[in-house]
Amino acid sequence: MVRLDEVGLRYGGTRGGPEILRDISFSIGPGGFRWLLGRSGAGKTSLLRLLSLAARPTRGTLIVLGADIGLVPRRALPPLRRRIGMVFQDFRLLPHLTAFDNVALPLRLAGRPEGQITVDATEMLRWVGLADKTGAWPAELSGGEQQRVAIARAVAGRPSLLLADEPTGNLDEGQAERLMQLLAELNRLGTTVVVATHNDALVERHPARAMVLEHGRLVEDG
Amino acid sequence: MGKPSLRPRGFDDLGLRRVFGDRMLPLLVAAMAFLAALAGAGAMAAANLADHWREGAGSALTVQVPRPGGAAAAGPGTVEETRIDRITGILRGTPGIAETRALPESELNELLRPWLGRDAETASLPLPGVVAVRMAENGLDDSVLARLAAQLSAAAPGTTLEAHRPWVRRLSLLARSLQACAWAALGLVAAVAAAVIAVATRGGLALRREVIETVHGLGATDGYIACRFARRAAGLAVLGAVIGALAALPVLLGLANLATPFQTNGAVGSAPWLAALPPALWIGLPVLPLAAGLIGFATAQGTVRRWLRRLP
Fold first, then answer.
1. Which of A18-27, A94-103, B166-175, B241-250 has the lowest mean pLDDT?
2. Residue B270's domain spans which residues?
3. Which of these, A140, A104, A142, lies nearest to A122 by C-alpha position?
4. Interface with chain B: mutation pick from A10, A92, A145, highest number of B CBs within 10 Å
5. Chain B: nearest CA to A65, how far in angstroms?
6. Residues in A touching B209 (Cβ below 8 Å)
7. Same-domain pairing of B27 and B128
8. Could you tell me if residue B4 is inside a domain?
9. Which of A107, B58, B223, B282 could form a disulfide with B54 if both were Cys (CB 3.0 to 4.6 A apart)?
């Protein structure tokens, strides 16, 4: 599913600034769950950017969904991205689209028939408990509701890999717990999940294998 | 909350309607289309002028015969005739000449009236006889004309033959230069329109950067994103060009009506007002919005695709 060998990342290409990630090596099999831990600036978001194909490694080998990301042509990346779901701390919902259209967007990008999209997007919103908010604009939703729409969008295309970057950062404890239950349910259904957080209490309540980053290096994987 | 519905036609995934020049761009394109219509009309007018001169003056010769009524030198076995009759006879017998017409004295006086006033008829000036000649379609080349001039001079000494061809060449060159300038102006207008659309597209990209990055991260291809921008740019460009073409129409009709007397030998108002516009312009004006739409589509596609290359 995911494999990294001696991966390094430097923004601005090989001649760019300092190396943000250094000598990262690990692998996650299908259906795995990993916490990604570390202080702010440790490189968690950069590692998730690599895994979500928002950046390419400047050295080493990165295999995601069977593709060597350092070698595949640029045009081969969009279909791979459609198999990866991403949840952000700041939700990143499109403000000019309703909750329904936000969730439907990845399905439209995948070229699904509009009739099927209506069924699937509605079902996703029902799954996250927002069946009555399909026509709501993001600005009309609470933080927790926005995050649930973001989750519904991330999983609408039935991704093989789900990445979450501080998904509970803007949520209260109850909303965070509800979110973790959704992620755990997806994981049980076979989706590989990686969650970056520095919420130690959340990690203690949901024990799973964890990777710890420090200054761009992976110092613990277990 | 309302029930979700199927995506409406023209669904604005990227929210471009709010950020992509919905007022300024059509107005700027309208100004460009207006100028393009004038430049195109100028190019067509210059081409018509060149053709008119070539077909008219280019095929004309003027022969001046001093003392036209005097007796021509009698050849052996010939009847006595005037000098102008002799010249006219030679011209009529020359291959490549379609029409020969000796101008009557009244017409000569009419031609001189602007310079001599009404005294032209009474002044006892020794006016030459004038023969207007129209050459056949293929005309006569310069060497044949030189031989003809010598022949006429021998038949009636002092006779001169004036070909208008050198002037027509210069005037045609002038007309073609004007035409080239008009086409260059048209090209410049198209380039400026493309630049305006590119700037508007970059503005839209800057304002929608986060949205585009999110959609890109969700798996949108470059073509998908570029197509959204291109459709929007093309729509606005077509709208602007329609406005510009409609604004240019009364101006062109007015100019065409002013030019009508020069094309119909002074018959003012001989054609209906709308018919004064050449057919090519009736075709050219509707083509403007299509061309603007194509320029808008292609420019936005190129601009967005170049911009997207910075994303992995």
1. B166-175
2. 16-55+168-308
3. A104
4. A92
5. 14
6. none
7. no
8. no
9. B58
